[in-house]
Amino acid sequence: MKRILFALTITLVGFNPSLIQAQQVWSLEKCINYALDNNIKIKQGAIATEYQKNQLQQTKFSRLPSLNGQTSQNMNFGRSLTYDNTYKDINSSETDFGLGVSLPVFQGFQISNNISELELDLQASVEDLSKAKSDISVNIASTYLEILFAKDLVLVSTNQLEITRLQIKQINEKVEAGSLAKGNLLDIEAQAAGEELNLVNAKNQLQLAKLKLAQLLELSLKESFDIETPSFPEISAQASIVAANEVYNAALLTRPEIKGADLRFQSSKFQLKMAQGLQYPTVNLYANVYDTYNNKYTDRDGKNIAFSDQLKNNQRKGVGLQMNIPIFNKFQTKYQIDNARLQVLNTGLELEGAKKLLRSDVETAQTNAIAALNRFTSNQKAVSAMREAFRYSSEKFAVGLVNTVEYNTAKTKLAKAESDLLQAKYEFIFRTKILDFYRGLPLVL
């Protein structure tokens, strides 16, 4: 019974194209989330962040003492110092053992400054990852809207062609009845051929837009791949557009490229402090244990001294402080400090440049949004007028008061006005979403 139910379910699914299609429909949120989880550049950014974490942790551990063991095996030939502190002409082998520990006491504040620098670099790396995610999200949203525009363009082209085919049918009836010349039929058929080409081009544009989105998602394009069509609110001439200064001030606090540039500027200041720390003396605490065994060491009676006795008697221990005082190092420290100062100036300019670029982008986005709204409003009026003109031309064409050239001209103007209206609509939607995105709002349609 279970097998029958399973087979029946598979059969129903196989014969339900709408269900299969629904499984391939992608919303904007799904596209963005998928890209953030699978995009190679995003993964590389995450790896770079992990690398910065390891660098920071490694530097923090440099404050701990280092413990090292050593051993060596030596062969001695000729005169050698014996166990009783006399020299003899004898060959021997010697095994040495050692254990040493070293602890940095003072390093010119370089360790603490390096930790502070790497903490800022880690935060900057996180912002770089956030910037990469923002970029891919905007690209996906832009392509998503391209697909929606292409879909509407296909619909407009289809409607235009259907109207023309209806006119062909009506004219053909009149030609057969002898009330119209055949030339009128040929003209309208030529118009239909041109509109069929426009429809093919619109469908090709739609397929290319889908391909572009699939490539952004790093997917292979399938025939059933499609996106969800959201319901947009009506756009009115009174649509509000946020002031550029308000968007810019909000973006300064939220945009990752600004945060990253500021963090790198702060990091460069600690690089300068590290370079200046090279002028200070460094102090290290050390301790060691050393032991040795020689196979030819003998006591006063000439007997070989046992391994354990030699280790007990030869063991040496030491503890001390070592200070290194920089006096002259070929001006290396001087130029390291100079270069660090230049780096501070450079990162400061990069931060200033990032702010100026952000302001430029915000002002451009706002100007484009206003221009798109103005175009949309103008095109709305144009479409309304063109539709009325085309309706009037259609009525006159039906009774033979206008020729096919005038009719086709009115129809072509209407098609262009509708296409321009769609383009202005999606341009306005995209630009306003970009302004919202700069303000730190989620990118949703």
Spell out the CATH superfamily of the largest domain.
Answer: Outer membrane efflux proteins (OEP)
CATH class group of the largest domain: Mainly Alpha
Tally of DSSP helical segments:
11
Query: Which oligomeric form is depicted?
Result: single chain
Rounded average pLDDT: 86
Radius of gyration: 40 Å
The tally of domains stands at 2
- Helix/strand order: HHEHHEEEEHHEHHEHEHH
Architecture of the largest domain in CATH?
Answer: Up-down Bundle
| Total beta strands | 8
Which segments are poorly predicted (pLDDT under 50) over 5 or more consecutive residues? 1-22
Helix percent reads: 55-70%
* Spatial strand sequence of the major β-sheet: 2-5-7-8
Secondary structure class reads alpha+beta
Strand content: 5-15%
Produce a short descriptive summary.
By secondary structure, the protein is an alpha+beta fold. Helix content is 67%, strand content 13%.
Descriptive terms for the model:
11 helices, alpha+beta, 445 residues, four-stranded antiparallel sheet, single chain, Outer membrane efflux proteins (OEP), elongated
What's the SSE blueprint?
Layout: H1 2-14, H2 17-23, E1 25-26, H3 28-38, H4 40-61, E2 66-76, E3 79-81, E4 87-89, E5 92-106, H5 110-177, H6 182-216, E6 226-227, H7 244-254, H8 256-277, E7 282-294, H9 307-314, E8 316-324, H10 332-398, H11 404-438
Helix pairs in contact: 3-5, 4-5, 5-6, 5-8, 5-11, 7-10, 8-10, 10-11
